[in-house]
Structure formats: structure tokens, C-alpha cells
Design brief:
Layout lengths: L2 H31 L6 E4 L3 E8 L11 H20 L4 H23 L9 E7 L3 E3 L1 H44 L3
Antiparallel strand pairs: 1-2, 2-3, 3-4
Helix pairs in contact: 1-3, 2-3, 3-4
């Protein structure tokens, strides 16, 4: 691994580590101070704090397959570590690191939270209206996807602009050759 590649991998690991620390700390605080029955409003009915335990994925999908979700989560972590080691830019490393941290945060819950090893429920506490309740690992997953999506969009726009410049330059040189031709 080159020095630059090692630096990008370190960036991804730092981002992931920060997400895991903040995620697990906020989940511990939620467990210690929140209720499953009472919602604490932060932004009226739009955003609040309420403790929930999710056996499934987003919107409780796959709630009957918690063990499978744990295996998929572990597999995703492995794939993300490999992707982090291969990140080509610092921005890409940050995006992958955020997603990796979110995945690790939720896998920790699935491995070590009740009701048992590998089938634990994810601790959630950020209530988005009446839509769903999530956690900071979920926020990091979304933020990482946003970073990667914006990075790809910007790179695509730059590539299109460069291609347009090359076509314009080629047409300009061809027009000049036609005017000064034989």
C-alpha cells in the first residue's frame, strides 16, 4: 500500500472510529435517560427523542430475520474495510468511513444487545415525526452515502465539462485549419 493510500485508509478509519464512538455513547445515554413510551420533542412533532429497539433494518424491515441481518452487517463491514483500503481520494475515504462507522455501530448492537448474541436489537432514539425512529449510526450511513453521491456527481460534471472543452478546442482547430487551408 502506497503512502497516499495508507493516509486515505487512515482517514476512513478515523471517520469510522469517530462515528462508532459517538454512536455508542449516544445509545448509552439514550438507554440511561429515555423512555419507550414518552417522546421528548426537539423540533415540535418533526423531531424528538424516544427510545426504541429495532430487530430489523430501516423501517423494521426484516424484523423476523435479525440473525441474517447481523451476518449481512458483518459482511458489509468487511466489504467496506476493503473499499476503505482502496479509496482513491480523501473525499471517498471520508464517505466510506462514515458508512463503515454506521455499519459497525449497528452491528455492535446486533452482536451484543438483548435478546442475545447475533440477534440483538438496534437501539434507536431519534424520532422523525411518526415515520420512524433511528440513531446516529443511521445518520452517518446517510451522510456517507450523500458524500459519495455528491462526489460522483461533481466528478461527472467535471468530466462532461472537460469533454465539452476538448470538443470545442478540436472544432476550433479544425475551423482554423479550414480557413487557412491549402
Amino acid at each position: 500500500m502506497s503512502r497516499e493510500q495508507s493516509q486515505r485508509f487512515a482517514i476512513a478509519c478515523l471517520a469510522a472510529g469517530a462515528v462508532v464512538l459517538v454512536d455508542q455513547a449516544t445509545k448509552a445515554a439514550a438507554l440511561g435517560g429515555m423512555s419507550q413510551t414518552e417522546r421528548i420533542p426537539l423540533l415540535g412533532d418533526l423531531l424528538g427523542l424516544q427510545l426504541a429497539f429495532n430487530p430489523g433494518a430501516i423501517l423494521s424491515l426484516g424484523a423476523d430475520f435479525t440473525g441474517l441481518l447481523t451476518l449481512l452487517g458483518v459482511g458489509a463491514v468487511v466489504v467496506l474495510v476493503v473499499a476503505a483500503a482502496r479509496a482513491r481520494t480523501e473525499t471517498w475515504a471520508v464517505g466510506i468511513g462514515l458508512i463503515l462507522g454506521g455499519a459497525i455501530g449497528n452491528v455492535i448492537d446486533r452482536l451484543f444487545s438483548p435478546p442475545g448474541f447475533g440477534v440483538g436489537h438496534v437501539t434507536d432514539f431519534l424520532a422523525y415525526g411518526n415515520l420512524f425512529i433511528g440513531n446516529l449510526a443511521d445518520v452517518a450511513l446517510g451522510a456517507g452515502a450523500l458524500v459519495l453521491g455528491l462526489n460522483m456527481w461533481i466528478r461527472h460534471r467535471r468530466a462532461r465539462a472537460k469533454a465539452a472543452e476538448q470538443v470545442t478546442a478540436h472544432l476550433g482547430s479544425a475551423a482554423g485549419a479550414a480557413v487557412t487551408g491549402p
